Amino acid sequence: MLWMALLILLGLIAWGAWPRPVKGGRGHGADESALVNPGGAAPATIRVATFNIHGGKGRDGRRDLARQADDLAGIDVAALQEVHDSWRAPNQLPRLAGRLGLASLNAPVRSRWFRRHRNNALLTRWPIGEWVRLPLTAHTRQRFHFRNLTVAELRLRQPVWILFTHLNRKQGREEQLAEVMEEFLQRSPAVLMGDFNMNREHPAMREYLERDDITDALRECLENDDPRRIDWILCRGLRITGAGVVDSGASDHPLYWCDIAL
What we know:
alpha+beta, Deoxyribonuclease I, Chain A, seven-stranded mixed sheet
């Protein structure tokens, strides 16, 4: 009987250690348990941001969500990538939401050790209506790099669609970008944010940046926009009034933000 118990234990360990993709889903609303002063009319301008938080780890190798919360201060809607919920870095999304007093929408990508430990996410000061999470095409050479796209209705003076994602670093990112853009081009007004792992010189990006109905908010407003930038805020049917970069070293990516007139 001992050997059978050991086999069962080893099987559970192997099952828990094996990374798995999280299926798509849909729902309504965000987790507003941390939201301060819910409700109220939206202002004429809101500030949106995209931030790959690198599991809370800064360029100095130290995990410190407080530094990243400081970078996010004053943001109304933030798309986050590489949000962890692991044994070493637990509950990062609710901890950030609590520090900032914002609602949160989790978009888990990968499950391991009986928890959804790799996630994209949205922090928001304003209500979320319907949302849908769509798995993106995987690639056999990056078998554990699962990706998804989340589409959420932000309820302001007028509904605004917020789309956020994180694409593969190499193989498969072009196919994933095409899937993301197909959803984006069906909606207006809309904001698409995330880490695309490709800069504006990539042929797949150039194809979309040349369109008249897509605005690269950062390049339009930043005087010294880095051509190597792989983090994006793209808009449709909205007017951009300003943009900026926060690069404190709290992550291996800067935080990029822009102001949108409603």
